[in-house]
Design brief:
The chain has 360 residues and is of the alpha+beta class. It folds into 3 domains: 72 residues, Arc Repressor Mutant, subunit A; 92 residues, Phosphorylase Kinase, domain 1 (2-Layer Sandwich); 164 residues, Transferase(Phosphotransferase), domain 1 (Orthogonal Bundle). Helix content is 37%, strand content 17%. It contains 13 helices and 12 strands. The strands form 3 sheets. It has a 6-stranded antiparallel β-sheet, with helices on one face. Strands 1-3-2 form a 3-stranded antiparallel β-sheet. A hairpin with a 5-residue loop joins strand 6 and strand 7. Helix 7 packs antiparallel against helix 10. It is globular. The N and C termini lie far apart (60 Å).
């Protein structure tokens, strides 16, 4: 891949900028040797959407630190090219920034990526690799830049996570222009366990919830971010601990609502979260999810673990779900956690206090 002269001028200028800076049109026009008409055309076609936000008075807001922009990411975004006819197979070797990895077998797939088990070529350590392979509806030019940006943010911000209840991100790389992430490999998920056992004992479910609360406290308080996809499938099991996984739609603290509300992501193209676990405010507007939205989703997950079935949003709203005989303090706590109004949901500290008093 080689940037054209025009692309190279824009890329070089962007690498000198800091996220949050406000610059006049003229700065970009001078750097790129563009006319104002050219700049407006590129802005209207969203070729610069991940990098610059249009403001009033012919000004632009810089959305990314220059040090975070690779030539490959810029080129793919600016030219709106996407992965075509890309496949991976067992035995393929992927080169990350730190290691080389040999794919073993597929573990699952979603709208944005496929996940494989793999081993390092150096010493055979087992890992999980998430390869960006969007479904066809996400390859549209108006959507793909946002998908790439979310994947890039998951890679960049995921590597900054350092908590025993958050899955560790180990490495990243590209294969034939397609990005991938490397994470620690879980033994399984709570969702898989529920498929086999249907429901969990009260104290077993409480232990999982405690692990999730610890991870959420770190995410909410230290990282100022909401997970937005709390559910048993993302409660990953490791020896003696459960960790929160899949940071793909986390509402990171550097999230820019002007970009994600600007038409690059729609409810039809990328549903930010899993509908039956979503808090009402997240169902209404995924971009407005807050930490309390994760508390709601955790309550739905807790009910599912206790009852062995996922209640509908209507049942949650009416407290019409059935639970086995449990301590009434936990039943009351669950009702508060799935309150319609986010401000009425208990904090993580309050939840911990009730659980400690119940299970002391």
């Amino acid at each position: 891949m080689a940037l054209s002269k025009g692309e190279k001028r824009v890329f070089d200028w962007l690498t000198t900028q800091k996220a949050g800076a406000v610059v006049p049109y003229k700065d970009v026009m001078d750097a790129a040797d563009w006319t104002e008409t050219s700049l407006k055309t590129y802005l209207s076609k969203r070729k610069l959407a991940p990098f610059l936000q249009k403001l009033q008075d012919k000004k632009l807001k810089v959305l990314m630190d220059g040090t975070d922009i690779s030539e490959e990411f810029f080129h793919e975004t600016f030219t709106q090219t996407g992965p075509e006819n890309f496949t991976v197979s067992a035995g393929d070797v992927l080169s990350g920034e730190l290691e080389k990895y040999e794919l073993i077998e597929p573990l699952g797939s979603g709208a944005v990526a496929h996940v494989w088990s793999a081993k390092t070529k150096r010493d055979g350590t087992l890992v999980a690799i998430k390869v960006m392979m969007p479904t066809a509806n996400l390859l549209q030019p108006s959507i793909l830049p946002n998908v790439r940006d979310r994947f890039r943010k998951e890679a960049r911000n995921g590597k900054t996570m350092n908590h025993p209840n958050i899955v560790r991100y180990l490495d990243l790389g590209h294969m034939d222009k397609v990005p991938f992430l490397v994470m620690e490999l879980a033994q399984g998920s709570v969702a898989s366990r529920l498929k086999n056992s249907r429901q969990l004992a009260e104290r077993e479910a409480a232990e999982i919830v405690t692990n999730c609360l610890d991870g959420l406290a770190y995410l909410h308080e230290e990282k100022k971010s909401a997970h937005r996809d709390i559910k048993p499938a993302n409660f990953l099991e490791f020896p003696n601990v459960v960790k929160l996984g899949d940071l793909g739609i986390v509402k990171w603290s550097d999230y820019d609502p002007a970009f994600t509300k600007g038409g690059t992501t729609t409810r039809q193209s990328v549903q930010l979260g899993s509908w039956f676990y979503m808090a009402p405010e997240q169902q209404e507007s995924p971009h407005d999810a807050v930490p309390a939205s994760d508390i709601y989703s955790l309550a739905v997950s807790w009910i599912e673990m206790l009852s062995g079935g996922l209640p509908s949003p209507q049942a949650i709203g009416a407290s019409g779900y059935k639970l086995p005989t449990i301590d009434p303090r936990i039943g009351d706590l669950l009702k508060r956690m799935h309150s319609y109004n986010p401000s009425e949901r208990p904090s993580i500290t309050e939840i911990r206090e009730v659980m400690e008093a119940t299970y002391k």
